[in-house]
């Protein structure tokens, strides 16, 4: 049974956000998972979406660890979590190797090999997926989930 008495029922202000800075290590994925779920619950997303938000946040963090930083645990990942008017937004920032947005197509889900399905899962689980490289180095990924039933996330050019 869930304890709703201790839950803050006030809507978030537009300037309220949580900023998490973690080392680029899989050891911190559980913290990302917990915060993503907490945000989904606090924003009153449908319960069926809580696990989707968790999965997308963990996949985004894992991709940064593996691809942007090549597994280097001395690098940092910044994650900004906020409730927005129609749902939630989670932003991921890194200073690693940025990839051209056109290269983020993901693997066809019918190819059941380990790896390569993270982008597909993020786009499937969330309503919006926006990726860009940042001037200098690094990248920025913004994932959004709306309260109402949304369509699958679309990337650049509307491609899934």
Description:
This protein is α+β, with helices and mostly antiparallel strands and 160 residues long. The protein has a single domain, classed as Histidine kinase-like ATPase, C-terminal domain (Heat Shock Protein 90), CATH 3.30.565. Helices cover 28% and strands 23% of the residues. The protein contains three helices and five strands; from the N terminus they run βααββαββ. It has helices spanning 29-42, 47-68, 118-125; strands at residues 18-23, 76-84, 87-94, 128-133, 139-146. A five-stranded antiparallel β-sheet has the order 1-2-3-5-4, with helices on one face. A hairpin with a 5-residue loop joins strand 4 (128-133) and strand 5. Helix 1 (29-42) runs antiparallel to helix 2 and helix 2 (47-68) packs antiparallel against helix 3 (118-125). The protein starts with 17 loop residues before the first strand and ends in a 14-residue tail after the last strand.
The value of Rg in angstroms is 15 Å
Number of strands: 5
Across the major sheet, the strand order is: 1-2-3-5-4
| CATH architectural name | 2-Layer Sandwich
What's the structural blueprint in terms of helices and strands?
Elements lengths: L17 E6 L5 H14 L4 H22 L7 E9 L2 E8 L23 H8 L2 E6 L5 E8 L14
Antiparallel strand pairs: 1-2, 2-3, 3-5, 4-5
Helix pairs in contact: 1-2, 2-3
Could you give a quick summary of the protein structure above?
With 160 residues, this protein is of the alpha+beta class.
